[in-house]
Amino acid sequence: MLTHTLGYPRIGAFREIKKACEGYWKGALDETALRSASLEEKQRRWRVQQEAGMDLVPCNDFSLYDHVQDMSFLLGVIPDRYKPLCQRLSDLDLYFAMCRGYQESGFDVTAMEMTKWFDTNYHYIVPEFTRNQDFHYYSRKCVEEFLEAKSFGVKEPKAVLIGPISYLLLGKEITEDFHRLDLIGSLLPVYMAVLEDLHHAGCMWVQFDEPFLVTDLDERTRKLYGEVYAALRQHFPDVHFLLAAYFDGFGDNLQTAVSLPVDTLHLDVVNGFYDLPSVFRSLSSEKNISLGIVDGRNIWINDVNESLGILGLAVKALGHDRVMVSSSCSLLHVPYDRQNEPDRGKLPDFLVPWLAFARQKLDEIRLLADLMGDDVSSDAFYGLAEHLKQLEKRKQSKLLRDGGVRAALDGLADQAAGRRQSIAERRILQQEWLNLPVLPTTMIGSLPQTAELRSLRKRYRDGQLSAEDYWSGVRVLITNAIRWQEAAGLDVLVHGEFERTDMVEFFGEHLEGVAFTGNGWVQSYGTRAVKPPIIYGDVSRKEAMTVELARFAQGLTKRPVKGMLTGPGTILKWSFVRNDQPLRETAMQVALALREEVLDLELAGIEVIQIDEPGIREGLPLKKADRESYLDWAVRAFLVCSGGVGPATQIHTHMCYADYADILDALIRMDADVLTIETARSDMEVLSEFAAAGYSGQLGPGIYDIHSPRIPSVAELKHQLEKALMHFSPRQIWVNPDCGLKTREWDEVVPAIENMVLAARKTRQLAGGNTLEEG
Ligand code: GLN
Ligand code: ZN
Question: How many angstroms is it from 775 CA to the middle of ligand 2?
Answer without folding.
Answer: 28
